[in-house]
Amino acid sequence: MKPAMETAAEENPEQSQERKVNSRAEMEIGRYHWMYPGSKNHQYRPVPTLGDRASPLSSPGCFECCIKCLGGVPYASLVATILCFSGVALFCGCGHVALAGTVAILEQHFSTNTRDHAVLSEVIQLMQYVIYGIASFFFLYGIILLAEGFYTTSAVKELHGEFKTTACGRCISGMFVFLTYVLGVAWLGVFGFSAVPVFMFYNIWSTCEVIKSPQTNGTAGVEQICVDIRQYGIIPWNAFPGKICGSALENICNTNEFYMSYHLFIVACAGAGATVIALIHFLMILSSNWAYLKDASKMQAYQDIKAKEEQELQDIQSRSKEQLNSYT
Question: Can you give the pTM of this predicted structure?
Answer without folding.
Answer: 0.69
